[in-house]
Amino acid sequence: MLTIILAAALSVATPVLREDNIPQIVSLLTLEEKAAILVGCGSTAFDGIGRNDVGVKGSAGATHPIPRLGIPSIVFADGPAGLRIDPVRPGTDKTYYCTGFPIGTMLASTWNTAIVRSVGEAMGNEVLEYGVDVLLAPGMNIHRNPLCGRNFEYFSEDPLLCGEIAAAYVQGVQSNGVGTSVKHFALNNQELNRLHNDARVSERAAREIYLRAFEIAVRKAQPWTLMSSYNYINGVHASENRWLLTDVLRDDWGFRGVVVTDWGGGYDTAAQIHAGNDLIQSGSDARYNALIEAVKDGRLAMEYVDACVTRALELIVKCPAFRGYKFSEAPDLEAHAKVCRAAADEGIVLLKNHGALPAGPDGVTALLGVTSYAFIAGGTGSGDVHRPYVVDLRQGLSDAGFKLESGLDEFYTAYMQDERWRCKMIDGNNSWVIDRERPIEVVPDELIKQAALTSDRAVVTIGRVFGEGKDRDLYYSYMLQEREVELLRKTADAFHAQGKKVTVILNVGGVVEMASWQDLADAILLCWQPGEEGGHSVASALSGEVNPSGRLPMTISRRYEDEPSAANFPRVFEDKPFNYSFYRRLEGNKKDYVVKDIDYTDYAEDIYVGYRYFGTKARGAVAYPFGYGLSYTSFRWSDLKIEKTGSLSEDSKCLKVSLTVTNTGKRAGKDVVELYVKAPGRSIDKPERELKAFAKTPLLEPGQSCTVQMTVPVESLASWENGAWSLEKGRYRIIAARNASDKGLRKALRL
Ligand code: GLC
After folding, report:
1. Residue 267: its pLDDT value, please?
2. Helix (H, G, I), strand (E, B) or coil at 225
3. Which atom of ligand 1 is nearest to the CA of 181?
4. Radius of gyration for the chain, computed over Cα atoms and rounded to the nearest angstrom
5. Ligand 1 atom closest to Cα of 51?
6. Assigned architecture for domain 340-554
7. Which residues, 6 or more positions from 30, have their beta carbon under 8 angstroms from its beta carbon?
8. How large is the average pLDDT for residues 568-585?
9. Whole-angstrom Cα distance, residue 461 to residue 444?
10. Which of 336, 344, 384, 744 is most buried by its number of CB atoms within 10 A?
11. Closest by alpha carbon to 598, among 571, 575, 574, 561?
12. Residue 735: C-alpha distances to residues 165, 208, 229, 671, 688 (Å)
C-alpha cells in the first residue's frame, strides 16, 4: 500500500515535459541534466562527418534524453542534397537509401522557389520517415570565391537569390514537421584551415552580403535551428560570438529558434552558452564537464544556461521524437525521384548553342568523356548522400532512345570497368576530406575519327567533384586538364571536318575556367551535379524534351585572377596537406594571426562580390555574367510597370513591379525575370546594380504571354552606414534584365 501511495505521490511531484510547462521543467532540472541536454551524445567515429549511432544509424548527432521528466533525445542528420544515414544496417537486409537531390548550387540555378520548396517537402518527408528530427541543411554561405570546396552545397554570390532559395527550401522541409539547420552561420567561405581561420570583414559587407542571405531565410522561413560556423569573425569565434548569435540573430532579426554548433566547432563552452549558442554538437565529456565547471566556479551565470535549455526544450517539443511519431522507414523514393528529376530539369543552364541543340534522339550520337559513363550526382563530405542509384549520361541517353556510336561505346564501357575499380581502390583508403578519385581521360584517336564519319553529333562530358574539408586546386580543379582540352580539340577537329556539331556537358560542382576552350564547343550545357536522375535530365535537355531554363547563380569570370577575392583567398599548396581544416590547430583559443589566407582572410573586396564587382569596378571582364542562361525559344518583355504601395510607415512601403513576358519562339519554355535596382550612389558608394527580386514564368507555349509580379520592400534598398540601415534619397533606376550585364527594360523613380 505504502509503495502505491509513494508512487502516486511521486507521479504527482514529477511532471513530464509538455509544450506549456517548459519553465517548470527548467526549474526541476539539475545542472548536470541541463548540461546533458545542451551537450550532445558525441560521435562514435569522428571521421570529420558527424557519425552517430544513437537513434538512427549513420546520423550526425543527438541530444541526451532525460527520461524522468519525459524529455526525449532528438536526432540530427545531414545534408543539403538529401538525408544522409547509413544505407544498410547489420542484421537486416532492409535498406535505408535516401533520394540524392541536385546540389544546392543547382537548386539556385532553377531561380524557381516553388520547385525548391517541392524538393524540401520531399527531402523533409525522408527525414520524418527515417526517424530524424532536424536536417542539417541548407548550406547557404555566399560564393565568395570559385575555389571554395563547399560551394557545391551553397547557392549563390548574391544574398537575395541565396536567401529566397534557402527560405523556400526551409519552408519545404519544415512543412513535414521536422527541423532544418541553416548553415554555416557565418562567413564560412573557405575550407582551408576552417576550424581556425579568422574572417576579417567590414560590418557593412557582413550586413549587406554575408549575413543578409541568412536574414532573409530567418525572417521568411523561421528555421528551427541555425548552425554556427567553424571560423572566427573579426577575432571572435562564430559559436562564441554574442554580437552574432544574440544581438544580430535574435534582437535584430527576431530569430526564435536554436543555435547548434558545427560538429566539434568552437572551444570555450561557457562562451558559447553565454553567446546564445544553445547546443554543443556532436558533444563530448570534455565539453560537458567544462560547462558544469564554468557554472560552479561562477564564470557562467545560470541564467544563460537556462535561456539555452529553454530554447532547446522549445525545439524538442516540436520534434517528431517528442510527438511520438511512428516513422515508417519506407518513404516513397520513387515519387521523390520524380521531384529530383523535375528540379534537375530546371537547374540545367544552356550557356552556348550555335545551331547544335536540341538534337536527337534520332540519328547516331558519339558519346565521349569518362564522366559520361560515371556521372557525378553530388559533392563529397557531409553533403554527400547514400543514393539508391545514379543514372549516368550513357543510361540517360539510351533510355531516351538515343542510338550511341558503337566503337566509342564499347571502348568506354570496357575501359571504365578497370577505371572504376582503380578509383574505388584509391577512394577506399581516403579520408572523406580528399576529392574522390576521377577516372583518367583516355580515348584512342582513331575511334574519334571513325565516330566522326558514322555519327550525327558528338557529346563530351567534363566532370569535377570536390567537397568539404579542402578547397579546390586552381590547376587540377578549376582549369581543364591538358587531357581534357586535347579530347575536346580532337573531337572538334574530327566532327567539324564533317560539318557536325560538338556539345560539351559540364557535370561539375562549381565553376571551371571556360574562356580558353569554349570556342571548341558548338553548345555547352552546364548540368552541375544533378542528383540521382542526372542522366535523364541531361538527355531531356539535349533532345529538347525539356527546354533549359536555368540561369547562373554566380559570375563566371574570364580568368581566376579577375576574381575580386583572388588576392585574398588561399591557394592550396602542393607541399602542404590539402586538408588544412586541422592545419593550424593551436592550443586553445590562442591565435597567432601570422599566415595570410590561412590564419586570417581579409575580405578586402568588401561588398563588391561577384557581379557587384564586375559591373562596377571591372566592366565587361567576364566569360558569363550572373543570371545568364539561354533557351531553345525566345521571349519578348513589355509593359514594365512600377507602383509605390504600402502605408505611410517607411518599413512597409513596397515597390510593386509587373512585366509581361511573351514566348515569341517555336518551342514552349520558361523565362526568368531578374529585377535589379541602381541606387543614386551619391552619399554612399553603391554597386552598379543589385538584385532585389526575381520571378520565373510558368511554361509558356509559343505565342503565349504572362505577366509576372514582383515586390521590392523599400527597406531592402537601404545601405548599412554608421551602424544602422539608411535609405539614400534620390533617383533610383529599376532594371528588369536577363542577367547582370544586360541593359534590360528600365524605369526611374524617386525615393
Ligand atoms: C561537418 C560540417 C557540417 C555538418 C556537420 C555534421 O563538419 O561542417 O556542415 O552538418 O559537420 O556532419
Report:
1. 92
2. strand
3. 10
4. 26
5. 12
6. 3-Layer(aba) Sandwich (3.40)
7. none
8. 59
9. 16
10. 344
11. 571
12. 21, 20, 35, 16, 11
Which of 263, 432, 579 has most ligand 1 atoms within 8 Å of its beta carbon, as the pocket-test mutant? 263
Residue 60 to residue 50: CA distance in whole angstroms: 4
Q: Which residue has the cell 556532436?
A: 282
Catalytic site residue 262? yes
Q: Which CATH number fits domain 30-323: 3.30.457.10, 3.40.50.300, 3.40.50.970, 3.20.20.300?
A: 3.20.20.300
- Which residue has the CA at smallest separation from atom 3 of ligand 1? 262
The reply to whether 30-323 and 340-554 are identical in fold is: no
pTM of the predicted structure, to 2 decimals: 0.96
**635-750 under CATH 3.20.20.140, yes or no:** no
Q: How many angstroms separate the CA atoms of 569 and 586, rounded?
A: 21
Closest atom of ligand 1 to CA, residue 48: 7
DSSP per-residue string spanning 177-221: T-EEEEEEETT----TTTTT-EEE--HHHIIIIITHHHHHHHHHH
pLDDT tens-digit map of 110-151: 999 999 999 999 999 999 999 999 999 999 999 999 999 999
The one-letter code for the residue type at 684 is I
- Tell me which residue has cell 520571378: 695
**Chain Cα centroid distance, residue 381:** 13
Residue 640, classed as helix, strand or coil, is: strand
Strand partners, 655: 644, 712
Domain ranges of the chain: 30-323, 340-554, 560-624, 635-750
